[in-house]
Amino acid sequence: MVTRDGKAVAADCRAAIDDSSVYRHPELGIKVARESNREPTEFDEIAWQIEEGDLRGTGYVAQMAAEIKGPGYIGYHGIGGGGAILGVDALNRAGLKIANYADTSGNPTAAKVYRVAKLILSQPNIEGFCLGGFLMANQEQWHHAHGLVKALREELQHRPGFPVVLLLCGNKEQESLEILREGLKDMTARIEIYGREHFYDTDFIAQRMRALVEEYRKERDA
Length: 222
Description:
With 222 residues, this protein is of the alpha/beta class. It has a single domain, classed as Rossmann fold (3-Layer(aba) Sandwich), CATH 3.40.50. It is 37% helix and 14% strand. Strands 3-2-5-6-7 form a 5-stranded parallel sheet, with helices on both faces. A two-stranded antiparallel ribbon has the order 1-4. Helix 2 links the parallel strand 2 and strand 3 (97-98).
C-alpha cells in the first residue's frame, strides 16, 4: 500500500515455512508442522518427531480418534497417499474404524518404518494392525519388511492372537514377502501376508482384517 505522502507500507504479510525447516525456527512456536483444524495431540507431537529427525522418505502419522473406546478400532499403516485412503474407505465399509492414519512412502529407511509402526502399535485398545500397501511402489520394499518385522516382534510377543494383515507390493516384492514370512512365522499373533495378487482388492483385505478381529475378540472375551 502507498500512503498519501508516497511511502510504501506492507498492510499484510504472509510467510510460508517449509515443513522440513520448522526445526530451524523455534521462535515460531510451531509444535507440529502440518495443517490441521485442531491442536496437535501428544500422539501427533511424537509422530512429528519421527519426521523432524529423519528426512529420508515420508513417515506421516496422525491421530484420528481422540479416545479409543468400544470395539472395531485398528492401527492403520498405509503406503502412498491415494492407495492408503482407498484402504481406509474399505475398512470403514467393513465396519472397522481407524485409530490413526499413517503413510510411509518415498523410500523411507527401515528405521523410519519401524518407528512409525511402533507408534501405531502403542495405541491402547486397538484390535488389529493393517498395512495397506495398495500400490505398486518403486521403492525397495524390503526396508518396509525389515522395519515391520522388528516392530511386530517387539510389540506382539505379549499379545497372543492379535490380528495383523499385511499387504506389500512393488520393487523387491518377493524378497520382502519372504522377510515378513520368515521373520514372523513363529509369532502367536494372527498374521496374514499378501502381495500383488490382492493389489486392487481393498475390500478383500478389509474383510480379512474384520474376520481376524472378530476371531480375536471372541477368543479374548471368552
